[in-house]
Specification:
The complex is a heterodimer of chains A (239) and B (498).
Chain A (H helix, E strand, L loop, with lengths): L5 E4 L2 E4 L6 H7 L23 E4 L2 E4 L10 E3 L3 H17 L14 H8 L16 E2 L5 E4 L8 H9 L5 E4 L6 E4 L26 E3 L22 H6 L3
Chain B lengths: L13 E5 L9 E7 L5 E8 L5 H4 L8 H5 L7 H15 L7 H33 L10 H7 L1 H22 L8 E2 L2 E2 L5 H9 L1 H21 L1 H6 L6 E6 L11 E5 L5 E6 L4 H4 E4 L8 E4 L3 H4 L2 E2 L2 H7 L6 H11 L12 H21 L18 E8 L2 E9 L5 E7 L1 H4 L1 H16 L6 H13 L16 E6 L5 E7 L5 E5 L3
Parallel strand pairs in B: 6-11
Antiparallel strand pairs in B: 1-2, 1-15, 2-3, 4-5, 6-7, 7-8, 9-10, 12-13, 13-14, 15-16, 16-17
Helix pairs in contact in B: 3-4, 4-6, 4-14, 5-6, 6-8, 8-14, 12-14, 13-14, 16-17
Classes of the chains: A alpha+beta (239), B alpha+beta (498).
Amino acid sequence: MSLENTFIIDGVPISFEPDQTVLQAALKADVFIPHLCFYPGLKPNGNCKLCTVIVNGRHTSACTTLARPGIEVENNTPELNDKRRLMLQMLFVEGNHFCPGCEKSGNCQLQALAYELEMMTPHFNHFFQTRKVDASHPEAFLDMNRCITCGLCAQASSEIDKKNIFALSGRGMASRVVINTPSGKLGDSNFALSDKAASVCPVGAILPKRSGFTVPIGQRIYDNLPISSQTEFLTVRKA
Amino acid sequence: MFELENAKITQGLRRIAIDPVSRVEGHGKVTLLLDEQNRIHQVRLHIVEFRGFEIFIKGRPYWEVPVTVQRLCGICPVSHQLAACKAMDIIIGARELTPTAEKLRRLMHYGQTVQSNAVHFYHLASPDLLLGFDSEAAQRNIIGVAMKYPDIAKQGILLRKYGQEVIHRVAGKRIHGTGAIPGGVNKALSAEERDELKKDLPQLIEWAKAGVELVQRLHEENPSFYNSFGLFDSNMMGMVREDGALDLYHGYLCAKDAKGVPIFDRLNYETYTQVLREEVKPWSYMKFPYIAELGPEKGWYKVGPLARLQTCDFIPSPLADAARKAMLSIGNGAPVHSTLAYHWARIIEVLHGLEVIQELLDDPDLLGKDLTVKGERQEEGVGVIEAPRGVLIHHYKVDEDDLVTMCNLIVSTTHNNQAMNSAIRSVAMQHLDRRIISEGLLNHIECAIRAYDPCLSCATHALGKMPLQVELLDAEGTRLSILSRNSSGEFHTSEMYA
């Protein structure tokens, strides 16, 4: 292993390719860094902050930090995982995430990370915000109760599908995914289930209609292996 | 107005509250009003929780409903899931399921009946029946049964475990799985799974037979007590197959009066709104259903094991049918209305459930791979099933965007609301009137409620260790004494004098 294209993560040297980020190189080397808003093939945007690592003593997002020779990255440490758990807890209480009745259960990246990081309770008081459900599209269903405003749908719709159907509106606590139609309804857009934006949502906010719970328990993505053991799956998903 | 529902004059009466009622599913309380001579003037079973499932399911997609509404209950979630799925089958135009899908659903449902009836009979009710209604309260639980009758306790626990395992194989989890979906099921059963379920079945059937014999023996040893405890006459309602056989998964609604004369017969349950009404009373969150043509005073009825074993003409499995005939013989040709006969009927259903499971496991259709169907979309669907506690009705309307716009659930315990109130009033007059109230006597009231196996909230579950507090108040509401049970089952009495 040449020192010119390696860096250290939690004391272990891993190699990287030019223009790879710390997160991309880590996943390729089978080293798991928790993340939600990163999706292979889409430009990393550092939204969720769950992939925060310490590079040469400074906190930074692993998804937006380019891998460089010789850098030392702290990742799987109790301190960082405590902070990641806190961020997950905030995401859970900000939205309305009822896993027991959610069709994304078992396939949900947010839920898988909560298990991975041993989130036992939400810790904070729930916001119980009133969020919209949009079932106007004949084939797809939007449940904003579960949206974590990661922005992946907007990116995929813009960068891959070239449709600009989804966008983030507002700032901070008020930011929301909106639909780029006069009515604000998905049913009035040219959205199709074959769009990339239909399949990048890490939670259960964008779903195909009438297919919930058709995959039995035991055959869902995260039923048998924790997300940290599925780096290959997380790497090969293509936008 | 029912006798003992409302005291004529409440002034000067003292109030005793059993709050919460223990060893039942959920939270409820009983209040009694007594005068200075301890004469009973009023007895009520109150359901003190508000759930709201019918409201918050509105606006949700229909395919989510069966999985969400099963969270109503931790003991009989399969019943809610299947009742909702049957309604959604109609919504998606899937009135006829594939043979494999229907048989897998039946397998899951009869597994549910075995596990739920077993947990109710052995874990919750048998401490009263085997150790005595007024035996030492600290021992009157499944642990007490295990100490004195270890074989019975073990058999009960393993019967329940088997029922749960059946559910696990079909639904993916023992509790709150996802097996049934609108239009069918989501998973085929493998030959290995089927063989695993077949392995212990003969032994389990023997244990269920022993359970039936046990209850029969208890009745035969003390017939005057068992036949009269909490006795009242009422109408009965249950679901039957077209040929009159008991069918817990699908069929027609039948109702008979207290003498066994049909009120309605082979009714398509999708028309339930034409025959049933619900009355609201200000002192309970639970409604009081009744048969419309008879009105609220005469049209109330009971559901559940004792009712359905008498609304059907026969049980379509030989061992259970023979046991049913033996049970009905105590009525000498008339219907059996004894409150404690519910337990007898309940354990007969465990035996029946195992016989049906055995038949299903031998059926080659069970291993088929054709799991779902769909047809022409409908706006409205009704699903009815015989849950362990009785007839369970789910009724939904779904708009063109696939969202639920209306939900009406009439759960088994609601059907039994007036029946349970009548049972505790009967017990109160038989065992508490003009007597000094003790914990053991109050437990008689709870025993009458437990016979119905109520799912008071369909949410929580108490296993005989729930704190219980009975307050004695004077007419001005001043507390005179408190009888309390802590979570260890220990009783304390505090006297308070002005």
